[in-house]
Structures are given as structure tokens and as C-alpha cells.
Design brief:
Length: about 450
């Protein structure tokens, strides 16, 4: 059985990462996962799925860009000057310390100004600061296979795999360089890094067909293997049951029909426009329930309050554990994915909620994009409609609830949901990885044989 070292720069472990690791463990392989901690210290734990998890303390994350290195060089020089003056003129140490503090603050402001000049982005600094932290922590866990989840850890994965002469697997969770939050210089840095390192991977996975095709085109590689963000229903979920948790929590009568938005509350997802759309929805028995997490939820609630919708046509609930999510999703009448096309990732998106809605048997309204059309429209799971404004979103909601065949959508979901579960994807994942497992077993057998021969010679 193989030892797999996984690298992932997330703090909240992505469901996709956990699912892959769990599938490996169920086959008898061992998985060590390096992810980021929530504080400065590094810690280790064993997850309920059996993953050996090392969380890298944030104090170990050190940017390696030239701007940061120059900043630190100036800081070390200031330290040397302070120490030299204090040793030579001890009576003046307090004055030297004040001057040092002023110079240190100036150095920090200069660093921030130079970062802004380098990246043209006030919100983010070095987009790829993790190489050193992952290499220094990962080198103690020698493995038979290194698997990297997303671009920020790819360089470190390449370095570790080369040092151990083992295969590298790259799982691209998105088109990482195409994030809207990046400036053009940051996108160029990320694109150059992905282009430089992706050819070192023996296997590349992508989350959907459109992203796989785009990666093959831009990096001149074989098309990555498509592995979707599918989910299997938890043991306690009954696909044939009719749940009503949302109405119970909100004390809504059975006559109210529920449109559900679940997941993270964040800008650039058409969520504020979705709230505004409820002021234009003509069907007066349809309510929007937004169940999720994130500070942006405060803005959404403020918008709903301003429009006089909160507690009337728009309701908010906190996120629930994954083990309870499908029961809550199945309590709605329709789910919505309104993400706008603010970047290529959004245009090609297949978010987690898509597969959660499918497994919950919940018909879907989604913005018109290639992958959502592939799943929602082509499979008969709901309605695709352009969502460029609150009025367009409202029109889609009215059409979905009033004119189109809910029963047919639910029937298609009931008949096809099995094909969109993780069980199917796990077979694809393990089959593609099998050659690497076989190679690892062969190396282990050769090592054992060499050890036995050495022992017999010694005896």
C-alpha cells in the first residue's frame, strides 16, 4: 500500500480533499495532509476520516518575492545599526531605540508602497507565498506519491517529489490565476508558475470539462482527468423522505414556497442582486431563504431590511453541519445558483451547492454558463436563465415557480442523482491513480528484496 503526502493551502478543508483522502484510506493507503493552521503554531491531529493532518502554523508562511526580501534585508540592517550604536554609546540607547522605531515604521510603509507598485492590488500581497513552509514541513514525511491540491502548493510539491524521485499528482480546484481578486501582475505570476510546474505532474485532475479543456489549451498538456465536486448523501439522509426543516425553523406556513441559497456569503456572487430581485418577484407566495456564513451576510441583511423584505420575503439562517445539509436543502422547493460571470472561474463554475442540490433532489435555477447548462439544463434538473440584473433574476424565479415542470425535474433528479455522487467519482480517481500505486508497490518490493539479500550476506 502507498503513502500519499497531500498539500493543500486551505484552512477549512475542502470537501473534495477529504473525499479523495478518505477513498485512499478505505483502500488501505495512508494519507498525510499538510494544510494551514488558524494560528501561528504548527499542530498535528488525526481526523475522523483517518487522515493524518499537519496544520502549518501561519508564522512559517514567509513570502519569497524580491520586494519582501529587500524589506527584510533593510530591517536586518537597521537591527545591526541599532545594536552597534547601543554597544558603543550605552547611555544613548533610549534615543537610538526611538530612531530605530521611526526607521522601522518607514521601512514598513515603504514595503507596502513597493508591494502596491509590484502587484497593483491593495487587498492581496504575494499570491504564492507557501513554497518554503510546505517544503520544510513536508520533507519529514517521505511518501510514495505527492498530491497537490491547487496552485499555491504546486512548486513545493514539485520540489518534494523530485527530491524523493516519486510521482506528482496535481488537482486543480479551479483556474487559479483567473480569480477576480487578483490584479493583472498577480495573474501573470500565477499563470507563469502553473505553466512552469504543471508538466512535472504525472496526473492532472480538473473539476469539470470546461476547465480541463482550458488547461489543456493554455499549457499544451493532455486534457486533465475530470473529477467533479460530487457528494454522497450522509447515512442519515433518506432521498425519498419529504423534509420540512426550513419552514419549521422559520415558522413558515405550508403555503409558502421556498427558494434556497446556501453556502458562503461573499461579494461577486450576485447575492445582493438576488436579495433585490425578491422585490420584483411577482409570485407572492415565494420566499427566499439564505442559509450560510460570512461577514458579507451583514450587507445582505441590510439590503433586505432597506427594501422591507427581511422577515417577510427574505430570511436568513446560519450554516449547518455537512451531515445535516441535505436534509435542509431537501426542505426547500427550489435551489438557486446566481453566480455572475465576473471572471473565467465564475463562468466555468460547478460549485459544491450544485451537487448538494442534486443529491437533495432539489430542482435548480442557475445563471446561464457552459457547465451549469451541462448539468442543470441538459440533465433536466431545472431552469437556466441569464442573471445580469435583479429583474432578470426575478424573471427566472417567476418562470421556474410558475411555468415549468417541477415534477419532471424532481423525477430526473431522483432517477439520476446516483450518477452524480462521489461513489462514481471515487472509482474514476482510484482507477487513474492505480498505476502509481502499482509503481509504489514495486519499489517497496524491490527495497524489501534488497534488504533481505543484504541481511543474508551479513549472516
Amino acid at each position: 500500500m502507498a503513502k500519499i503526502l497531500m498539500l493543500c493551502h486551505d484552512q477549512h478543508l475542502d470537501r473534495r480533499v477529504v473525499a479523495q483522502a478518505q477513498s485512499l484510506i478505505e483502500q488501505g493507503h495512508s494519507v498525510r495532509l499538510l494544510a494551514l493552521a488558524f494560528d501561528a503554531s504548527t499542530s498535528e491531529e488525526l481526523t475522523p476520516e483517518g487522515i493524518q493532518l499537519t496544520r502549518i502554523g501561519l508564522s512559517h508562511i514567509e513570502p519569497e518575492n524580491p520586494t519582501y526580501r529587500s524589506y527584510m534585508a533593510r530591517q536586518y540592517r537597521l537591527n545591526d545599526i541599532l545594536n552597534a550604536l547601543a554597544n558603543r554609546y550605552p547611555a544613548r540607547t533610549a534615543g537610538f531605540q526611538k530612531g530605530f522605531n521611526l526607521a522601522r515604521r518607514f521601512n514598513w510603509q515603504l514595503y507596502r508602497a513597493l508591494l502596491l507598485l509590484r502587484y497593483r492590488n491593495r487587498q492581496m500581497h504575494d499570491p504564492l507565498p507557501f513554497r518554503q513552509a510546505f517544503v520544510s514541513h513536508g520533507e519529514k514525511y517521505r511518501a510514495d506519491i505527492v498530491q497537490v491540491h491547487d496552485l499555491p502548493a504546486l512548486e513545493a510539491g514539485v520540489e518534494l517529489a523530485k527530491s524523493w524521485q516519486v510521482p506528482l499528482v496535481y488537482d486543480a480546484h479551479e483556474l487559479y490565476p483567473e480569480q477576480r481578486s487578483f490584479s493583472r501582475p498577480q495573474r501573470r505570476i500565477c499563470s507563469a508558475a502553473e505553466k512552469a510546474y504543471i508538466t512535472n505532474a504525472q496526473i492532472v485532475f480538473a473539476v469539470n470539462e470546461s476547465i480541463a479543456q482550458e488547461m489543456a489549451r493554455r499549457y499544451h498538456i493532455d486534457k486533465p482527468v475530470v473529477l467533479t465536486n460530487a457528494i454522497d448523501p450522509p447515512a442519515g439522509f433518506d432521498p425519498s423522505a419529504r423534509y420540512d426543516l426550513l419552514r419549521e425553523k422559520l415558522r413558515l406556513p405550508a403555503s409558502r414556497r421556498i427558494l434556497l441559497l446556501q453556502g458562503g456569503f461573499a461579494p461577486n456572487r450576485n447575492l445582493n442582486e438576488l436579495v433585490e430581485a425578491m422585490a420584483h418577484v411577482k409570485l407572492l407566495d415565494v420566499d427566499l431563504v439564505m442559509m450560510g456564513f460570512g461577514d458579507y451576510g451583514q450587507k445582505l441583511q441590510a439590503t433586505a431590511h432597506r427594501l422591507g423584505l427581511i422577515g417577510k420575503r427574505v430570511y436568513f439562517l446560519p450554516a449547518v453541519p455537512q451531515s445535516e445539509l441535505l436534509q435542509h436543502s431537501a426542505s426547500a422547493d427550489m435551489g438557486i445558483i446566481p453566480y455572475p460571470h465576473v471572471d473565467l472561474n465564475s463562468y466555468y463554475c460547478t460549485p459544491n451547492k450544485l451537487f448538494e442540490f442534486i443529491q437533495a433532489g432539489l430542482p435548480i435555477i442557475a445563471n446561464d454558463s457552459p457547465e451549469l447548462r451541462r448539468f442543470v439544463d441538459s440533465e433536466g434538473f431545472g431552469l437556466i436563465h441569464q442573471m445580469r440584473s435583479p429583474r432578470q433574476i426575478a424573471k427566472a424565479i417567476d418562470m421556474a415557480f410558475q411555468k415549468l415542470p417541477h415534477a419532471d425535474w424532481r423525477l430526473q433528479l431522483r432517477n439520476k442523482r446516483h450518477f452524480f455522487g462521489w461513489g462514481v467519482q471515487a472509482k474514476i480517481y482510484l482507477t487513474v491513480m492505480q498505476d502509481l500505486f502499482n509503481a509504489a508497490d514495486k519499489v517497496l518490493d524491490e527495497d524489501n528484496s534488497s534488504t533481505q539479500k543484504a541481511a543474508s550476506v551479513y549472516l
